[in-house]
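[Q] Does anyone have a clean structure-token version of this?
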Amino acid sequence: MLSIQEIVESGLCIGCGLCAAIAPDDIVIRSTTNGAERPAERVPVTGDALAEINRVCPGLHVEVEPTAPEEDHSALWGQVRRLAKGHAGDPTVRFESATGGVLTALGQFMLTSGRVEQVLHVGPVPGDPLNWQAKVSTTPAEVAEGSRSRYGPVAPLTRLVEVLDSGIPTAVVAKPCDIAGVRSMLRGLAIGHPGDVRYVLAMACGGASLLTKTTDMLDSFGVAPDQVKSLSYRGYGNPGPTRVVADDGSTHELTYQQLWEDEGTWDLQWRCKVCADGMGEVADIVSLDCWPGGGPTVEDDGFNGIIARTIEGAELLDAAIAERVIVITDDDLPVHETLELWQPHQSRRKRAVPQRLAAMAASGLPVTAYTGVHFDRFTTGSVDDGTMVRIERGANRDPQPRFS
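[A] Here you go.
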């Protein structure tokens, strides 16, 4: 077993908060000096709690259980029962959400249709525009409060054990790595949590930025973090502006291209750089940007790519389409050609991960164990030299946060 400190210092922690949900008396999630959220221990966690954390931590394990027919599997893109393009049927949801509003619309639909009674996702901390937190929503309006994307650290699974212990029918919407942790928890419900997670939905993820991405942007505007009245990364159009309103009433904006055109400024967490599942292969449904070439060139009305991966996901999507909650504009799209067009960065990263993980292993570091993700199909046996250099520099190491 790895200690919490070893997981963090190796670079495998993504800050999902699952360990804090399992051992809430001993672990809290705290911000680090480098802009991440990491577990802080009151005392070192040991025994059964540490064993459970090692079993479910998505920094250590990502496991996909194949449920689709073999012909629906792709080593690069995972199992795909249906690939479509569409948007939320409600024009307000579509306009205000990050892209086409599909995840927001599905979250609301799962509640209004009675499929679930609550949705675990993330939303802004009241009175603190720079920070988000785990949120349990029971109404469509509450679900909408978590739309428009979050480009910064947040721990969505700090309330997962609470949700499981409630026994209330639940859906979870989060990043692919977070959903991997949920799946691992659900495989071990013999530990005593009754649990009733009926759906897990994910957004395709290019990586989770450190908070320094946001604070650097504020610096460029001449706005101090404690002077921010509101912050919106996307939405109100597609992709919509990144907009900061300061306490003095001044408004500052960047386009999506201005914020993300220089990949060297993304400030991604280390775990993201060795992620072989940015496409949510563990989820029931995945929603994704569908710009040709991987990035927007103009503002449009908002569309999402939609992947139904499981029987449950396909049924949910069918029902949402039947009720006009989701409107499909293109259906039954060819998987490889379409996803290579929409998400070329995901293809490049998955092909690069084996060499990056080999560099970690060659440096004596633990690596994420992937099962059913098939990134091994792209292994060449080589070690990525750039990753080795960054490890030697200590770029993988996160500072340990203090408990208080």
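[Q] Thanks! Anything notable?
[A] The first strand starts at residue 27 and ends at 31.
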